[in-house]
Every structure is written in C-alpha cells, then in structure tokens.
Amino acid sequence: MILPILGYNHPILRKKADIIDKDYPELLQLIEDMKETLKKSEGVGLAAPQVNRSIRLFIVDARYYASKYPETNDFTKTFINPEIINFSDNLVYMPEGCLSIPGIYEDVARPEIITIKYFDENWQEHTETYSSILSRIIQHEYDHLDGILFTDKVPMIRKVFLKKKLENIYNGDINIEYPMIFAKKKIKQK
C-alpha cells in the first residue's frame, strides 16, 4: 500500500523517533508499504517519520544512482534502530532533496564517511562503513529520525530565498505525483 508522505514541518517530522523492538506491530508490512511508497515517489530513501510513524526505521534504495555511482548498484537496505557511531572529519558538499520537501534541492555539507550500527528486517545486527553517495543518503534518512530536515543544514541566506517555497509546501500549495499530508492543511494530493 502506498502511504502518504508528510510535508515540510509537519509536527511528526520534528519529533525524535522511538526505538522499537521485534514485537513492533506489523513491522514487515510497514517496511513493504514503505518500499512501495518509495518506488511510487521515485525517491532513494524514506524514513518512517515521513510516513507518520515516529519510529527509528528507514529504508534506502539507491539504485537510481547506479550509472554514476557503481556502489549503488543493487543497493537496497532496511535500517532499524540505527546508530551512527563514527563520522569522518572531511565534509563534502552535495545537493540534496527530500520527498517531504518536493521541488527543493540545496547543497548540504555532510561527513564523507560514516560507520553505522543497525538491525535489518530480520533483526540481524550489522556494523558497516559507507562513503560517498551512500553515506549521504543514509545520513539524510538518519536525520529524519532525530527530527532534522536537510533544509535545517542550509545556510541562512539560502533559507531566505527558500522561504516562499517552504511556505507553499507547509500549506499544501504544490502539485506532486504522490500522496502527501501537509502540516497546515490536513489534506492529501496525488
């Protein structure tokens, strides 16, 4: 089932998400629904808070970047209760966008390399190190679990230029190809 995505500054997007355990109700169905939603919205990552579930879960399907970044070929993963345990000192600027903030892309500085500990959908624990585009996607989704949006990392001068666009998203005054719920208007659009 395709789930509606919460729009910019919806209160759920600003909450710190809760840790879950193996008994979380219908977790595997939620993961499948998130995968279907991600495919429909043509994104590369989706965090549970974006679909109105304030839990520490996100998925990544980075195959969109396979032609430019070979390491993304067949890269699809589920991250449950992730914890980034190491960040490199080297920061890299790259443009980012977000399904909750459609139509806006801005350069964001992020550590080039991270090490993350997490559980997969089978509750197998992993500790892995990522760099380049995979590191960026993972950090972006991880931020959602702490109530952080990529626009929070944009320099203030750029935020001034984005103000009207962000207000439009907040109010639901946009056209998108996937269902959304907006902070000000509790409506869905397709």
Textual characterization of the structure:
This protein is of the alpha+beta class and 190 residues long. It has a single domain (5-181), classed as Peptide deformylase (Peptide Deformylase). The chain has helices at residues 27-41, 132-145, 156-171, and strands at residues 5-6, 45-47, 57-61, 76-87, 91-98, 101-111, 113-119, 125-131, 180-181. Strand 5 and strand 6 form a beta hairpin. The protein starts with a strand and ends in a 9-residue tail after the last strand.
What tags apply to this protein structure?
3 helices, 24% helix, alpha+beta, Peptide Deformylase, globular, 190 residues, five-stranded antiparallel β-sheet, two-stranded parallel ribbon, 9 strands
- The total of helices stands at 3
Within CATH, the superfamily carries the name: Peptide deformylase
Structural class: alpha+beta
Largest sheet: 5 strands, antiparallel
Overall mean confidence score, pLDDT: 95
Number of domains: 1
Choose one word for the global shape. Answer: globular
Strand proportion, as a percent range, falls in 25-35%
Q: Which strand order does the major sheet show? A: 2-3-4-7-8
Provide the CATH architecture: Alpha-Beta Complex
Low-confidence stretches: none
User: Helical residue percent?
Assistant: 10-25%
Separation, N- and C-terminal Cα atoms: 14 Å
CATH class: Alpha Beta
Rg, Å, rounded: 16 Å
